[in-house]
Target: 3-oxoacyl-ACP reductase
Amino acid sequence: MTDEIRFDGQVAIVTGAGGGLGRSHALELARRGAKVVVNDLGGARDGTGASSDAALKVVEEIRAAGGEAIANGANVTKRDEVEKMVADALNEWGRVDILINNAGILRDKTFAKMDMEDFELVLDVHVTGSANCAKAVWPVMREQNYGRILMTSSPSGLYGIFGQANYGAAKAALIGFMNALHLEGAKYNIHVNALAPTAATRMTEDLGIPDQVFEQMKPEAVTAGVIWLVSANGPSKAILSCAAGGFARAYMAETDGIYLPPGELSPEAVAEHWNAISDTSNINFYQDSNGPNMNFLGKIAAHQ
Ligand code: NAD
Model:
C-alpha cells in the first residue's frame, strides 16, 4: 500500500480554482495539509467578466474544514498581477512548492467562423497564463530545489475536437511547454506534468452527456490523479489522461521509420514507403528531441 500522500508544510497555487476542477484540486490539497492560494478571476465560461466571490467561497470552505488558504483574483494573462500573487504567497508562507495551471476559458466555433480575437484570447489565457505563472514561481522553485508544476492540457490538445481550433492549439502548446520545463527543471528537482481530463463542470455541461455518466465524471475523480502528479514522489513529463475514475498515460511516440539514401531520395519514394514510414509495430518513445536524430543517424550508419 502507498502511504497517504501529504503536503504538510507545502504551499500550492491553483489557478482558476473558484469552481470546477480547480476548486476540487484546491480542496484536496488543503485537506492533505497544503496551504493553498485559491486564484480565480471569477469570469464567465468565455472569459468575460470578473468577480472575487468564487475564490473567496473556496477559501471559506478550506478554512471551515480546518485548512489554510488565501484568495487571489489575479488574471493569469496579466504578468504584474501574477507576480503579485506569487509575492503575496511568499509573504504569507515563504515558499511555493506546487503550481497547478488550471485557469481556462472556451470560445468554441468552427475555424471558418472564428474571429482571430477569439483565437488569441484562448491562447493568451491557457498558454501565456500558464507561462506567466510558471515564470513567477520558477526562480522560487529553483532556489528551493523543489517544485511541482502541472499543466492542464486536454484531449482536445492531444487528439482534436471539432470547433476547438483555438483551444486545441493552446492545449497542445502546453505539452511543448511541459517538455522544455521538464528538461530545464530536472536538476532543480522541479517536476512538470500535464493533465488531459474530462469532468463534469460548467465547461462540459452542454455536451449532452447522459446524466448518469455526467454524475460519475465528478472533478474529484480527476483530482485523485492530480494529487499523485504534484506529490513529492510523482513522475515528471507524464501526460495523464483521466475521467470518471479511468486513468491512462498518453505518450508522444514516433514510428521507427525508414532511411532513404541520397540516390533514392524523392517525394515519390516517400509516397512509396508511406506504409513503412507509418508502421506502428515499432514505436519509439524519445526522452528529448535528440531521439529522432540519433535514430536516423543510426540508420545512416547501418546503411554505409
Ligand atoms: P471552469 O470554467 O469551471 O474552470 C475554469 C476556471 O478558470 C474558472 O473558475 C474561471 O473563472 C477561471 N479563469 C478563466 N480565465 C481566468 C484568468 N484569466 N485568470 C484566472 N482565472 C481564470 O472549467 P473546468 O472544466 O473546471 O476547467 C478547468 C481546466 O480544465 C481548464 O483549463 C480547462 O480547459 C481544463 N479542461 C477541462 C475539461 C473538462 O472536461 N471539464 C476537459 C479538458 C480540459
